[in-house]
Amino acid sequence: MLALLHTSPAHVPVFDALRDEDHQGLELRHFVDEELLARARREGPEAVAGAVRDALDEAVAEGARAVLCTCSTIGGVAESAGARAGVPVLRGDRPMAAAAVAAGPRVVVAATLESTLVPTVALVEEEGRRFGHPAGLLEVRTLLVDGAWARFEAGDSGGCARLVADAVDAVTGADAIVLAQGSMAPAQHLTTTAIPVLSSPRPGLAAGARAVRVG
Q: What is the per-residue pLDDT across 65-80, written as a single tens digit (0 to 9) for each?
């Protein structure tokens, strides 16, 4: 069983649909705690480290063979807490970041929440070093899409996606554009830019499925 740690219930049907498309037979167990993101935004991601460890312990107690954290803001905290979880604990956005730096050294990180920018930029930089980009060559820029998160919170996921797609289509001089939050994934299919636009849910779930298989 793969446990998924979410900070919004909106992610549950997204990952269920991806499972049905790509990983039939994979058992998913969703753990949703919206307060984790709210507190991380107020106090910083490290403030929720204890609560994340508790969530991981609960998932393992219920039989999880791996845990996938789908929230970019707290993904690093979950990954660090996973050292004592006894099962693989994965950041859902790490495969996306790896694909971005493989596309080239100029990466734009787009987000609808400012709290997501710092951890995602750090992740892209980490993957850039792992990929082998020389020091000083990797260029990571940020793009905060104003108003998009308010649309998402109001239940207007289509309006959020349209704002994100329009902002992304205005980007120039990049080898890849990262949609830092899983909630931004629908915008990937609305963009018209020739620059590769990457989102995290599908590759993240694939990584989680592999972790379940290998244990």
A: 999 999 999 999 999 9
Cβ burial 94-126 (10 Å sphere, 16+ → b, else e): bbbbbbbbebbbbbbbbbbbebbbbbbbebbbe
The one-letter amino acid at 7: T
Phi and psi, residue 173, nearest 5°: 65, 40
What H or E segment, with its residue span, contains residue 101? Answer: helix 94-103
CA 199, CA 70: separation in Å to the nearest integer? 11
- H helical segments located in 105-187: 114-131, 148-153, 157-169
Which among 118, 48, 125 is positioned nearest to 80, based on CA atoms?
48
For helices 94-103 and 114-131, angle between their N-to-C axes, nearest 10 degrees: 60
